[in-house]
Design brief:
single chain; 168 residues; mainly beta; Jelly Rolls; 1 helix; 17 strands; 2% helix; globular
Length: 168
């Protein structure tokens, strides 16, 4: 089986736009609310849910850390809803996404997300499950609940991808 090295890129709105949204202060419209005491960083991402009786769920995922180098053997996608991850502990994590080619993921890309950056995967975007680094980390996750199959997994049959380190 072929092993392909994935370089890690900086997570920026421009780099990530084909896959989803970056959730980070300073990127959207800022509104002062509550007697001008609070800054509302408005509409940084939108939850997108479809299907039978869809619900927007708010969860906390606790992930053990992955060790580098790590091998990417699979990706998943959610056809009925977007999925957003926001780190709660301020720790960096990795994001791996892939383009879709007629229902099959190809050309995976790795990003280093800083501890103050969240991501919102658009509906149907191939991505690796949560990749916490260094220590166990909590993430606020906004995703879809309801009837219907909202998970599709794909295991790469001919190659795996490796991330050697987190250097950008």
């Amino acid at each position: 089986m072929e092993l392909i090295n994935l370089p890690v890129r900086a997570l920026t709105p421009e780099n990530f736009a084909p896959f989803g949204d970056i959730i980070e202060t300073g990127l959207g419209e800022v509104k002062l609310i509550n007697w001008d005491i609070t800054e509302r960083h408005h509409a940084l991402a939108t939850a997108d849910v479809i299907g039978e009786e869809p619900q927007v769920l708010i969860n906390i995922f606790r992930s053990k850390p992955w060790e580098l180098p790590l091998t990417i053997k699979m990706v998943e996608r959610h056809p009925l809803g977007s999925q957003a991850f926001m780190p709660l502990n301020g720790r960096d994590y990795l994001v791996v996404v892939a383009e879709d080619n007629n229902g099959v993921p190809h050309a995976p890309v790795a990003f280093l997300a800083r501890g103050n950056q969240g991501v919102n995967y658009h509906r149907n975007v191939w991505h690796h499950p949560l990749l916490a680094l260094d220590e166990t980390s909590d993430f606020l996750v906004v995703d879809r609940g309801g009837a219907g199959n909202n998970l599709e997994e794909y295991y790469f049959p001919q190659q795996n991808f490796t991330i050697s380190d987190r250097s950008i």
